[in-house]
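Quick question, first post here. What does this chain look like in 3D?
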Amino acid sequence: MPHVETRHAIHPEHARTMDTETLRRHFLAEGLFADGEIRLIYTHYDRFTLGAAVPAGKTLTLDRIEETRTETFLERREMGIVNIGDAGTVEAAGQSWEMNRGDVLYLGMGSGAVNFSGHGRFYITSAPAHRTLPCRLVTVQDAKEVRLGAVETSNKRTIRQFIHPLVMESCQLVLGYTTLEDGSVWNTIPSHYHDRRMEAYLYHGMEPESRVLHLMGEPQETRHLFVANEQAVISPTWSIHSGAGIGGYTFIWAMAGDNVDYTDMDFVQPEDMR
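> Answer (accepted):
Ran it through. Tokens below.
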């Protein structure tokens, strides 16, 4: 059975009072990737769920969890899966997909039980859905690339959009990932928030001793988290999400909420942050 943790929504006024340990307990997801296990965090931010499956050469099945009170986890949900490990296989809805590192698989509502096998490290994201859409494997080559930033501002990066209106259709889940170029450390600068969607960041591709300083909180009441490899940050609608890392890294961004408009952001310039 998958291990499932529930995270409740936090009001920004409450977040202002939190010490470091409390911030980490509510907003940082640690220990998601465990050999031979499926671990999930079910959040009360748009009922977004994130987690990981690491079959380690065996087969793991995600079918039913008590938190959704449905016969199968995907009965009223859609799912986005990213393989950040070696090659692996995902089976659902009577189909099978071979996934290489960096590939993304979309599973539509009603896809039934999901089987993970091989040596992949599968990052799982899921949000409620209102209709069934076709399952689709989006390879790295199929993704839409956007190049942003500059060397002089230390934020030259490549954004790859997978579950995105310019690539494919989904109900409310939007997903992709951003890779920083050598010598660039800042992501998502200028910072932003979006009142209509929550977001989660999974940081990976980092050396064990490296960390990302992830900035969160209200623009004029910021907080921070030091994040290690394969850890994720849950970002409420009222929180900014930016960061700077020691060494190279990639972060997977996934969103759920009122729309799938990737450009629906409220930007905050560095001089306006506190």
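The helical segments are 12-15, 20-27.
The chain has a mean pLDDT of 97.
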